[in-house]
What does this fold into?
Amino acid sequence: MKTKDKILLTAQNLFFKNGIDRTSVKEIAEKADINIAALNYHYNSKENLVDIIFEKIISEFAPTLPYILSSDLAIEKKVKDYIKNLNDLLIKYNPHLPFFIMSMMQRNPEKIMKLKILKKLYNPEEFYEQIKEEAKKGNINKIDPTHFFMTLLSLIGFPFAMQHILMGNNNWTEIDFIKFIKDREEFIYEMTIGLIKK
It folds into this structure.
């Protein structure tokens, strides 16, 4: 692995595990088995590393999730596909990803909101319009689209934030937790679709 890639992967793992503010440049360099000068040569600063990792992660979400929301699929199919795809992406990374994204948003919200890649990921306007139109036609219950989407995101994301507690209380292995997440997909679907079904 190239030094540049090794630094990036090491920093990502440490940011996820310890949090951004509790991870120092010195620790990243030590774990990557390089000196601080080499880290600065490749990335200039810890903040630059944070930005690159954030954009890299968001870019993996961007091709699939917004496409689902803006497609011509029925709302029920969109919700089912969105739940599955977001779960799969969260499983692929690790339980700390929601915390990493939230901490990024809190650290510098103005800067984050200007990122083009974030606008690609979080752009549910077409989905909101579809919900409003279907409600006007009488096909679904009238519901605030933002409340609906935030409920969907919360139901998907919160168990990942609770992973260690869930595993400890239930004596689960990593495999048990992933099975729980996959089994939960139908539960989330039924709950959210239940909000809008006539």
Observations:
- DSSP finds 13 helices and no strands in the chain.
- The radius of gyration is 19 Å.
- Residues 1-44 form a domain with the Arc Repressor Mutant, subunit A fold (CATH 1.10.10.60).
